Amino acid sequence: MTWLRPRPYPLRLTELPFSPPLVQAPMEGVTNFQVRNAFARLGGVGLLTTEFVRVSSGALTEKVMRRHVLKTPGVPLAVQIMGNEPDFMAESARVAAACGADVVDVNLGCPTKRALKGNVGAAMLRDPELCHRVLAAMREQVPGLFSAKIRAGFEETEHVFAIADAIRASGVDFLTVHPRRRKDGFREGTCDWRIIGLLAEKLDLPVIGNGDVWCASDARRMMQETGCAAVMIGRGAMRNPFIFRQSAALLRGEEPEKPDLVALLAWYRQLAAECLEAFGGHEGGTLARLKEALVYLSASVRDGIPWRSAMVRSTRLEECFGHLERLLAERPMEDFDLCAERAPWAKNPGGPDCSE
Ligand SMILES: Cc1cc2nc3c(=O)[nH]c(=O)nc-3n(C[C@H](O)[C@H](O)[C@H](O)COP(=O)(O)O)c2cc1C
Fold first, then answer.
1. pTM for this structure?
2. Which is nearest to 290 in space by CA: 274, 304, 309?
3. In Å, what is the CA distance from 109 to each residue of 102, 112, 161, 196?
4. Of 194, 130, 280, 106, which is closest to residue 209 (Cα–Cα)?
């Protein structure tokens, strides 16, 4: 299928307008404002992203959008929206940009059953024409940067090229690619970086590569192997909050810092303090957030499952921090996969999967 080339908006980008070329991945229920701030504090992130905001029975109002467009000083914010109705999506995109989103991004990758039922997210990859209609309508309403995040097709990866053409023709400024199919979820199948490379070569757009970057050397390798313009990191950042900083150093040709466990504890303390403030002092909500972040961290600890099982049973914030302090004090540094190179024992990195 060929698409008419739209008028330029305002110009085709040849490179990404942010640096370092490292992007925090949107993660529903995980990358809230406090987590984004926490990553930004450590440095190395070029672009922060909200989790998806669902557009279903009408366009999002300014009041609703303002709850999502929470900006961290000094780092641009992409606001991601998910839906399939062109008018609602176009108006929501306009509102997001008007509320201060530095980038408006469209979710064309959510693999969940709920997204499939609503024919949104990755389900839209079955229909390049629908993707084009929705994105072209949005493009008209976004004066600034506009992007899309896709998977490597719905059932079969060969469809990804038709989709990418349709999306490019709708006038996006850049495209993020997670090279798994819808049916692969986040763990199954191969996260085939060659697809990122093929799209980066074929499209006259900057492509952001995403998927299975677990340490800084993976980020550098993804850029070298695929020619992508930037790397987006999700679970890898939750299991190693230093990853952006380490990756930025590696990309500058510098020696990345070794992980600092005292700084790591302070990072979780500050994250919890910000959550506590945001939740009006509500300990339960803060504890839930902290446990979630620490479950990811446990995936970077050698034989971390018994520790994780004990930690998640904490009923108070200080009890949870007690588990963390003991872990950091008692285990040798070699038991933490937090360096720029993957630890030799960390064969199957990962974290909790996206729930359906
Ligand atoms: C818990 C969870 C929630 C996610 N939520 C979103 C989302 O809201 N929007 C989106 O585009 N992708 C979402 N993703 C996908 C991630 O952005 C990313 O593409 C995926 O985790 C692969 O990257 P990684 O290997 O660096 O984690 C989510 C993934 C997880 C694990």
1. 0.94
2. 274
3. 21, 9, 15, 14
4. 194
Q: Strands 22-24 and 77-82: what pairing?
A: unpaired
| Domain definitions of the chain by residue range | 22-251, 261-335
CA-CA distances (angstroms) from residue 137 to 86, 89, 205, 280? 6, 8, 19, 39
Q: How far is CA 38 from the centre of its chain?
A: 14
Chain position carrying tokens 């629908």: 130
Low-confidence ranges of the chain (pLDDT < 70): 1-11, 348-356
Instruction: Compute the radius of gyration of the chain from its Cα atoms.
Output: 20
Distance CA 356, CA 353 (A): 9
pLDDT tens-digit series, residues 88-112 = 999 999 999 999 999 999 999 999 9
Q: Residue 71 contacts by C-beta under 8 Å, 6 or more apart in sequence?
A: 77, 100
How far apart, in whole angstroms, are the C-alpha atoms of residue 240 and residue 124? Answer: 32
Q: What backbone phi and psi angles, to 5 degrees, belong to 105?
A: -120, 145
Q: Classify residue 127 by burial, with Cβ atoms within 10 Å: 0-12, 13-18, 19+.
A: middle
- Rounded CA separation 197/113 (Å): 29
* CATH of the domain spanning 22-251, picked from 3.20.20.70, 1.10.3720.10, 3.40.50.11540, 3.55.10.10: 3.20.20.70
Q: Which residues line ligand 1 (CB under 6 A)?
A: 25-28, 30, 51-52, 80, 107, 109-110, 149, 178, 186, 210-213, 233-236, 354
Strand, coil or helix: 156? coil
The answer to whether the CB of 248 falls within 8 A of the CB of 254 is no
Q: What pLDDT, on a 0 to 100 scale, did the predictor assign at position 351?
A: 46
CA angle 72, 78, 80 (to 5 degrees): 125
Helix (H) / strand (E) element for 81: namely strand 77-82
Q: Residue of the nearest CA to atom 1 in ligand 1?
A: 354
Fill in the amino acid letter for 53.
Answer: V
List residues bridging with 198 in a β-sheet.
Answer: none
Q: What is the pLDDT of residues 246-267, one digit of tens each?
A: 999 999 999 999 999 999 999 9
Nearest CA owner, ligand 1 atom 10: 26
In the prediction, which pLDDT does 156 show? 82
- 191 as an active site residue: the answer is no
